[in-house]
Structure formats: structure tokens, C-alpha cells
Amino acid sequence: MPAESDISANANIRTSTVWTIVLGFAADPLMRWSWPDASQYLRSMPRFVNASGGPAFEHGTAYVTEGIRAAALWLPPGVQQDESALDEIMALSLNPAITEDMALLRQEMAEHHPSEPHWYLPLIAADPNWVGQGLGTLLMKYALQRCDEQGITAYLESSNPDHIPFYQSHGFEVIGKIQHGSSPPLTPMLRAAK
């Protein structure tokens, strides 16, 4: 497994980091429900990544492994996603048949966020060529150490049921299920500080 010293947070590598996440989510059930056409996915997903996790770059909480083979965008307590940019992306790119379901998903996601200060992980992914190399574990341990040191809860939504065991192995617990219409399920998960 790579060493923790292989992790960096650097806004100068934002574009490469965003594309690593785009590659990592290319087969994600929720993302491909949102944008089933490959060209639409490739046009919309980079903007989505920036709106969802972009504040991590400004706060020094965008973590990448060596070679930007994997990335995690963590939002510190009190830092929010760019909801107006997300609204615009959804309005311009979604199939009108799923617009209402997406709005309900986003509303319920907001309702599941803890009311107390928490670290939020909107996005973590590895380049598919590097999956299974321990990079996600490295990124997760690095960030969760900070959560534990600060005594602050961590929160995420898993958009892929196959990834739930990974999060559980890092102490996250399922706290619900979010699904509307034809959408794949989203699984909100919470981890208390250790």
C-alpha cells in the first residue's frame, strides 16, 4: 500500500484531479442515470465535480495520491457545495423526464446531512486503471485521521451499492436510503469521530 506521504492537496492540479474523478465515476449508477449518453456525461460531469467538490480546492482539502491516480474532495465543516451551480447544471443537462426525481433526491440528500458540524465527502474516486491498489483506503485514512483529531463526524452518500462495504470498513454506518422514481439508490452514511 502507498505511504501517507504520497498524498497532497494542491489547487494547481485541479483540472487533472477533476478528470480522475470523472473517469472514476464513468460507470457509477447514479451518474449514468443522470447522463446516460457518454458525450453528455463527459460534458456535464466535470462541471458537476467542480460544483460538488470544488470548494475543497480552495480549503486545501482536495486530496490526491501520487500521479493523481485517485482523489477525494472533502468539504470542511461549514463549507457547502455550490448549489446554484448544481441547479444550473441539472437544468441544462438532465433529461426532463428525470428532473423532478433529481430535485427530490437532492432535497432528501440535504435532509440527511447532520445538523452538527461535520466533514462531508461528496466525491472520492480512482482512475479505473488503479482501482484495487489501496489508493481509496489511503485517502480515506488520511482524511478520517483529521476528523478524529478534531472530534468531528464524517458524512457521505454512496451512489454505488458496491462501495458500501468499503465505507463500512472505515467506520461509516448506513443511516437511510434515498431513491425517487427511476433513480438508483443513494445511501447516506455517517461516521462518528473515534
From TrEMBL:
<dbReference type="InterPro" id="IPR000182">
    <property type="entry name" value="GNAT_dom"/>
</dbReference>
<dbReference type="Pfam" id="PF00583">
    <property type="entry name" value="Acetyltransf_1"/>
</dbReference>
<feature type="domain" description="N-acetyltransferase">
    <location>
        <begin position="109"/>
        <end position="194"/>
    </location>
</feature>
<protein>
    <submittedName>
        <fullName>GNAT superfamily N-acetyltransferase</fullName>
    </submittedName>
</protein>
<dbReference type="InterPro" id="IPR016181">
    <property type="entry name" value="Acyl_CoA_acyltransferase"/>
</dbReference>
<dbReference type="InterPro" id="IPR052523">
    <property type="entry name" value="Trichothecene_AcTrans"/>
</dbReference>
